Amino acid sequence: VHNARLAKIHRTYSVVEIAELLGTHRNTVRVWLKAGLQPLDGRKPILVHGEELRRFLTTRRNAKRHSCAPGQMYCFRCRAPKYPAGSMADYQPQTPELGNLAGLCPDCEGFMYRRVNANRIRESTGDLEVMFPQDHLRIGKP
Ligand SMILES: [Zn+2]
Question: How close is the Cα of 142 to the center of ligand 1, in Å?
Fold first, then answer.
């Protein structure tokens, strides 16, 4: 867990500075930039305002703490838990026990993900219609 308070709100940080400040990898910071951390407009190299860094880290922490209801996923763009469009989700296994549910946000149409334990998948999916990789294979066959 990264301490949002380490970021000073009246200064800007480069990707490398954020990584050093929080003791994380530069690539992690780049993932955050794709997941909704907003850089200052048009700056190269990328600079992020400390206040924005705080907001982003706090939002992420809260998203983890307030776990979604069954069938919901957290949309990082809308910053809220949502039921996916069409009440449909894809299960993408990562290991035999763990995988991600993927669905589309009904409001911004961005992808939403939810980490799930394959053995307790029904606790996470609620009433969603879940497609598994083998379902796609079956559909693809004549
Ligand atoms: Zn959304």
Answer: 36
Contacts of 74 (CB under 8 A, 6+ apart): 63, 68, 80, 81, 82, 112, 114
98 and 119 in contact (C-beta within 8 Å)?
no
pTM of the model: 0.51
Distance 2 CA to ligand 1 centre (A): 24
Quick one: pLDDT at residue 141?
54
E strand or H helix at 111:
strand 111-117
Question: Using an 8 Å Cβ cutoff, are 108 and 82 in contact?
Answer: no
User: How far, in Å, is the centroid of ligand 1 from the Cα of 122?
Assistant: 23
CA of 73 to the centre of ligand 1 (A): 10
